[in-house]
Amino acid sequence: QNFDGTGRWFWQDLPFVQVEDGELQRYELRAGDVLFNTRNSHALVGKVAVWPEGRPGAVFNNNLRRLRAVSEVLPGWLAAQMQGPEFRERIGTAKSATTGVCALYMADLMGQAIALPPLEEQRAALQLVGAARSYGHAASDRHAEACEALDRLDRSILTRAFQGSLVRRDPAEGHAGALLDRISRERAQAGRPPGEATQQTGAQP
Q1: First to last CA, the chain
Q2: Residue 106 in 3-state DSSP?
Q3: In angstroms, rounded to a whole number, what is the distance separating the alpha carbons of residues 172 and 193?
Q4: What are the pLDDT digits (tens) for 16-36?
Q5: Which bin fits 104, alpha (ψ -120 to 50), beta or left (φ > 0)?
Q6: CA distance 58 to 114
Q7: Taking the model in full, what pTM does it have?
């Protein structure tokens, strides 16, 4: 769960495991390895990300498959195609779901076609994809920050409302709790139950 559908990594809450030397040699990730999520929910299975540089000593688990591109294919180009709508639509027909867990097998994955333009075109396309994704990620982050700010503002407004500090008021009125107590006493003295609504003749909705 440490990368999303666009291949962006999230480094918080990484799980740590202890492995033997042989396991590390077999499962260690190298920069440029393409990781494909083979087991997840139906919506999330098929996520793809490229392992970045500068993070040695990491291994992948059995919910992922590791792909290593040949010299004629840039890892980012391979990942970008696998993240695209056409590729995801094709693998959608191969997904097999069982009790809430969806699986995609290696044979289904390896049978998919990949476009292979010259390396120069791959690099140019990746620059455009990278710029578009950077803009999208920035917009998404700003949206998340705005939602958090609005949530904090809502809580602040409600707190101030209950404290009676949103508007100027007569200090003699007291806080909301004291006002409710006074209304309840007045109703009781008038012979009305505290929860009974007051009816006024000719009142308009």
Answers
A1: 53
A2: helix
A3: 25
A4: 888 888 888 899 999 999 999
A5: beta
A6: 28
A7: 0.61
